[in-house]
């Protein structure tokens, strides 16, 4: 593998990778198996792991007993490098994190204790991890209703079919050409039943969230995506799940509980954030503004951001806040007066954080870096986000001003694209150029997107409410007018129909009159001819003088 992460994947189009069929295994894999009771299913899962074709010397298995009664034990039929640890804190996230703390592999393979891997499954996963160091690979699980056998069958397919596929994963993969066609949420593929992850991604993303009741797999998948992961479905990594999942048994209840928690943590789930004003643990976008540029300039920029159409927003105002000292005896002559004003103005604003650096929470999908004094229009940020999301871009640069002094620009950065670029960049390589390769970069005109330095005109909530009420009243008036005009048009159509009918009747009458006139003309001509003949005869009978 070359320095800088090897082949560069654009978006999630992993088709550029060419994992070798006859690769030489060198990466170590740690299989983490959280378990609670059900010793019989665990025995089968470990027996299936013992049959794997990936080298045993490169494989370790960490079984985590999550408070079983009686305690779990390791069966004789298991991989050679298998150990059992205990985790008294209940919950899959706690158990997986306990196993993760013990893992030493280059790749972490999550495996549920009721999932039986086909013999080549781990090898199918590891083929991909040898091709790139930033992958999340998910196998294909089938859910069987067959009785749990006492021993692992020689032919798993024969023993456990017919079985039901993981339907929503199949649908997601087929709908997005195998997740290569710019899917909006490829991280949904991260499911804990049989998924492997590059250990360096987990190190960057952090462990599973123990505060979540459900949805830990998806939430961690989201953070892996933010860390630059590429998600790969591998149909040759097959497995059988003994029985249905909890979601299959009661999807509505599972979604109800899961959505209540993940909405705070996964900004990409926009449909769960329909409230027009509330704040969330992880905002959709964070704006960074230099707080040392003067009170009026900073306030113009920050207030415009807070007044925009993107409420799912936080603002980081940078400055030496911790070392700031206020002059109480002569505040107007304080050399740090502007900093004091900025600090005092925003210290209690919930969406603004006064920070010493421009670092942003890596879980936030987008970061806007905006020079103070420049104000985005009310819908500017929303339009930039639409552009970045719809085209899958990693960076949108906004040209604000260009002069002999240089270029002034704002930047909307996609966190996941920059994280991927850092993984694959070579030493000294310009990061924006790498982002262009893995996601795409574009420039837009600030004027086109309504950025300005003009004094702000902020419409308050009540003013906005009045304007909306007036607009709704105008819409209602225009709707009534449209209905009235439609009625008038209907009347005109009826009248036009009558006119057409009358026209037809008149044409018929005219045609009749024309026929009568023609007949009268013919009769008149006949009378003239008869009269002429009669006169000629009468003249012919008169005696000559």
From TrEMBL:
Start and end residues of each Glycosyltransferase 2-like domain: 30-141
Stored InterPro entries: Glyco_trans_2-like, Glycosyltransf_2, Nucleotide-diphossugar_trans
Coiled-coil spans in chain: 461-523
Superkingdom to which the source organism belongs: Bacteria
Alphabetically ordered keywords of this record: Coiled coil
Record-linked CDD domains: Glyco_tranf_GTA_type (cd00761)
Pfam families recorded: Glycos_transf_2
Keyword field contains Coiled coil: yes
Record-given protein name: Glycosyltransferase involved in cell wall biosynthesis
Organism expressing this protein natively: Nonomuraea roseoviolacea subsp. carminata
């Amino acid at each position: 593998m070359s320095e800088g992460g090897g082949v560069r994947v654009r978006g999630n189009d992993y088709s550029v990778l060419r994992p070798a069929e006859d690769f030489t295994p060198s990466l170590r894999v740690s299989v983490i198996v959280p378990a609670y009771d059900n010793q019989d299913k665990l025995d089968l899962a470990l027996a299936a792991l013992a049959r794997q074709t990936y080298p045993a010397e490169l494989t370790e298995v960490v079984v985590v007993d999550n408070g079983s009664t009686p305690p779990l034990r390791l069966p004789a039929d298991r991989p050679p490098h298998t150990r059992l640890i205990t985790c008294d804190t209940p919950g899959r996230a706690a158990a997986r994190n306990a196993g993760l703390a013990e893992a030493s592999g280059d790749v972490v393979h999550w495996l549920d204790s009721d999932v039986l891997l086909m013999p080549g499954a781990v090898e199918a996963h590891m083929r991909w991890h040898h091709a790139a160091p930033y992958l999340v690979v998910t196998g294909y699980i089938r859910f069987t209703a067959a009785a749990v056998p006492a021993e692992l069958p020689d032919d798993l397919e024969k023993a456990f079919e017919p079985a039901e596929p993981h339907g929503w994963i199949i649908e997601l993969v087929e709908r997005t050409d195998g997740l290569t066609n710019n899917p909006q949420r490829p991280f949904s593929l991260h499911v804990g039943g049989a998924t492997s992850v590059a250990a360096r991604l987990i190190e960057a993303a952090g462990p599973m969230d123990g505060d979540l009741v459900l949805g830990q797999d998806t939430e961690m998948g989201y953070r892996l995506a933010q860390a630059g992961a590429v998600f790969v479905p591998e149909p040759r990594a097959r497995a059988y799940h003994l029985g249905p999942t909890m979601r299959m048994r009661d999807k509505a209840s599972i979604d109800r509980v899961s959505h209540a928690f993940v909405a705070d943590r996964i900004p990409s789930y926009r449909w769960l954030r329909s409230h027009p004003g509330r704040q969330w643990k992880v905002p959709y976008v964070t704006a960074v503004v230099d707080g040392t540029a003067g009170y009026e300039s900073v306030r113009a920029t920050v207030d415009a951001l807070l007044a925009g159409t993107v409420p799912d927003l936080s603002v980081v105002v940078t400055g030496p806040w911790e070392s700031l000292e206020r002059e109480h005896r002569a505040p107007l002559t304080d050399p740090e007066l502007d900093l004091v004003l900025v600090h005092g103005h925003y210290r209690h604003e919930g969406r603004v954080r006064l920070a010493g650096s421009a670092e942003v929470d890596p879980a936030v999908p987008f970061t806007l870096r905006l020079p103070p004094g420049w104000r985005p229009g009310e819908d500017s940020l929303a339009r930039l986000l639409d552009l970045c999301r719809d085209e899958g871009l990693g960076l949108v640069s906004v040209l604000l001003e260009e002069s002999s002094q240089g270029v002034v620009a704002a930047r909307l950065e996609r966190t996941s694209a920059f994280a991927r670029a850092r993984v694959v960049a070579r030493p000294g390589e310009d990061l924006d150029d790498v982002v262009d390769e893995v996601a795409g970069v574009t420039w837009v005109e600030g004027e086109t997107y309504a950025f300005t330095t003009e004094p702000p005109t902020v419409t308050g909530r009540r003013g906005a409410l009045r304007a909306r009420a007036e607009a709704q009243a105008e819409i209602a008036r225009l709707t009534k007018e449209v209905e009235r005009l439609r009625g008038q048009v209907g009347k005109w159509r009826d009248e036009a129909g009558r006119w057409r009918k009358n026209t037809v009747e008149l044409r018929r009458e005219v045609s009749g009159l024309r026929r009568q006139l023609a007949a009268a003309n013919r009769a008149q001509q006949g009378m003239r001819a008869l009269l002429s003949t009669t006169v000629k005869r009468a003249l012919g009978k008169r005696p000559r003088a």
